Amino acid sequence: MKCAFRFALVLLFCLTPMHAADTPPAVIALKAVRLFDGKSKTLLPNGVVVVEGNTITAAGSNIAIPENAQVIDLGDATLSPGFMDAHTHLTYDFSGNYNELRLRMLDENISQLALEMIPHAKATVEAGFTTVRDLGSGFPNSHDFPVDVPQLTPAEIAALVDETHRLRKKVAVHCHGEEAINAGVDSIEHGSFMKPDTLQLMNQKGTYLTPTLMASEWVMQKIGNYPPAIQAKGKAATDARSEMFRNAVKMGVKISFGTDAGVFPHGMNAKEFALMTGLGMKPIDALLSATAVDAELFGVANKLGTLEKGKLADIIAMPGDPTADITATERVFFVMKDGKIMKNEPKL
Length: 348
Prior knowledge:
- The chain is of the alpha/beta class and 348 residues long.
- It has two domains: 27-82 and 303-344, Roll (Urease, subunit C, domain 1); 83-298, TIM Barrel, CATH 3.20.20.
- The chain is built from nine helices and 14 strands.
- The protein has helices spanning 98-105, 110-126, 154-166, 179-183, 196-205, 213-221, 228-251, 271-278, 283-298; strands spanning 11-13, 27-35, 44-52, 55-61, 70-73, 77-81, 83-88, 129-134, 172-174, 187-189, 208-210, 315-319, 334-337, 340-344.
- The strands form three sheets. Strands 2, 3, 4, 5, 6, 12, 13 and 14 form an eight-stranded mixed sheet that branches. A three-stranded mixed sheet has the order 1-8-7.
- A hairpin with a 2-residue loop joins strand 13 (334-337) and strand 14.
- Helix 5 (196-205) packs across helix 7 (228-251) and helix 6 (213-221) packs antiparallel against helix 7.
- Mean pLDDT is 88; it is low at 4-10 and 138-142.
C-alpha cells in the first residue's frame, strides 16, 4: 500500500503542576494490594511506592516505609506509572457536530485554542494520562486525497525525516506503506491498511505502530454525522484495522499506546485498552504500551514510564487487577503528577 504521509508537529505535554519554591519536599508512601512497575510481565503483590518531593525514592513489593512518611493506603487496587497517550489533539474536540466545529476553527486564534485546551488536559490527566503527545492538526485539504495515496514523494519524506532528526525531534506520520518506514520515521499513526510485509519491515527498522483503535470505534458509532468523504475513509479504515492490528501483535511489532483523542471526547482515552486486548494483545502488554513503550518512543524513558528509584513521581491507581479486568483502566481513582496529588476519589 502507498503512504498517505502527513507531517505533524509533535508536542509533548507532561501536564505538570506547579510547586511552591519554599515548600519542603514531603515524603509520601503509596500502598496498594498490587503494583505494576512498567517493567515486569506480572503484577507485584503488596505494592509500595515512596515519593519525596517529585521523585520516586523506592518502589516494589513490601518496601520499607520511612517513619516520617505520610501513608496513603489505596487498598484493593493496582499502582501503576501514569499512563501515556502517543496520539492526541488537545486543542480540538470533534466528538460533536463535525461540520460546525470545522467552521468554527476557521475563526479561532491560538489564544482561544489554548484556553479550550485547558478542560481537555484536565479531563485527560484525571483519567490517569499524565503525559501525552499532541499531534496538532492536519492539512485543511487532506480530504481531497484518497486514503491510500501519498501526499509526498519518498525524497520529500526522507528530507523531512533527516532534518527533524537533525534537530533531535521525533517524526510521526499517518502512513500505510513502506516509504516513510524506509525513510526512518519513528512512528506510524493508524496504519490501518498495512499488510504483513510492511509490518515485517517495521519490525526490522524498529518503527513503532500507534494504532488509535478508539478513533475508528467512535467514528463508526456516529458515522452519519460526518461528511461523505470522511464516512468513506472511516469505513475503509475500520474494515482493515482489526486484521492489521492482530498481525502486528503476532509479529511482535513495537506497539505504542495512542488513541486520537479529540476525535472522541477527551478523558475516554483508556477505552483503547479493551479494544487492544479484544484484538489479541495480552493485558500486561497493553499496560506496557501505555507506559514503558510510550516513554521510549517519546525519548523520556530516563525519567518516566516505570516505577523505580529516581524517576519522576507520575503515579496512578486503578481498582482491582487490570490484568484480570482491563476495563479497570477506565476507572482510575488516584492520580499523582510530578509528586502532587491531582485526584484521590473513592474507588468505583
